[in-house]
Design goal:
Helices cover 66% and strands 5% of the residues. It contains 11 helices and 4 strands. The relative contact order is 0.16. The termini are far apart. The strands form 2 sheets. Strands 1-2 form a two-stranded antiparallel ribbon. A two-stranded antiparallel sheet has the order 3-4. By secondary structure, the chain is mostly helical.
């Protein structure tokens, strides 16, 4: 090749995943996002009337971690971040074991929404788990404590509605919108997905918290209009944060984890 000759051929792009990864996700990504969860644990989002504890803003991004990192790496990042937050921000932690369980299952379920072909049936196992949790919640409320059925149905609205949305094709529809090139669809997909996943997170936690705190029927009636508003606010904050994060990641063209949805 002479000094002035222009090279020909297709341009090659070289990307590296780094030396260490978990389920196709660089460990550095997991560490960074776990730190973000910890930081947001300091920010009170709302108050749980049944237990008097604060809800951390970090709950709004548990689904996002599943979509960014995949089910396994996302669950690990959320779990680590929440565990550290339990010690550094105990005023939003609630019951530590229940808080960590909710974070892990939320990110895992979010990652499963857009799972690869070999994992496309993982949602069925999760659906069985969530169905059992809903049945346990109904038993504790209706059979053991005598809560009226209609009160339970309205009080558990975000729980059973999230389960329905996860079981129906809306699960994959939200995933498709999150991976869309239109950021309007991305925002809508994140809102719908966050409503679904945070509802399932609540469903995974509430049988344990209800067993521990056993709030009476007047508290049920008070919570009926509050809990859906809280979940909608999680969806809105998740959509704002998530759309910005996904937009930025696409713009800087970082290496994409193997199981990432965006």
């Amino acid at each position: 090749m002479t000094e002035n000759q222009i090279p020909e051929g297709a341009e090659r792009e070289v990307k590296t995943m780094g030396g260490a990864a978990i389920d196709g996700t660089p460990i550095a990504y997991i560490i960074v996002l776990a730190a973000v969860v910890t930081v947001l644990a300091f920010v009170p989002f709302s108050i749980v009337l049944g237990s008097g504890k604060g809800i951390p803003l970090s709950q709004s991004i548990y689904p996002l971690l599943g979509w960014l990192l995949g089910p396994l790496a996302g669950a690990l990042a959320s779990g680590i971040g929440t565990l550290i937050g339990v010690f550094l921000a105990p005023y939003t932690a609630g019951v530590p074991a229940i808080a960590i369980w909710g974070a892990v299952i939320a990110s895992f379920a979010a990652g499963v929404m857009g799972a690869s072909r070999k994992r496309r049936f993982w949602y069925l196992g999760l659906t069985v788990l969530f169905g059992l949790e809903l049945a346990a919640y109904a038993y504790l409320a209706i059979v053991r404590n005598g809560i009226p059925v209609n009160t339970f149905i309205f009080g558990a609205f975000i729980d059973w509605s999230a389960l329905v949305l996860f079981l129906l094709p809306t699960r994959t529809l939200f995933a498709q919108w999150i991976s869309s090139t239109s950021f309007v669809k991305v925002a809508i997909g994140i809102f719908g997905g966050t409503w679904t996943i945070c509802g399932l997170m609540h469903l995974s936690q509430v049988p344990f918290t209800y067993y521990l705190f056993n709030w009476p029927e007047p508290i049920w009636n008070t919570l009926i209009p509050i809990i859906p508003v809280e979940n909608a606010m999680r969806g809105l904050s998740g959509a704002v944060i998530g759309t910005g994060v996904i937009s930025g990641l696409r713009a800087i063209n970082l290496v994409k984890p193997k199981e990432a949805l965006y």
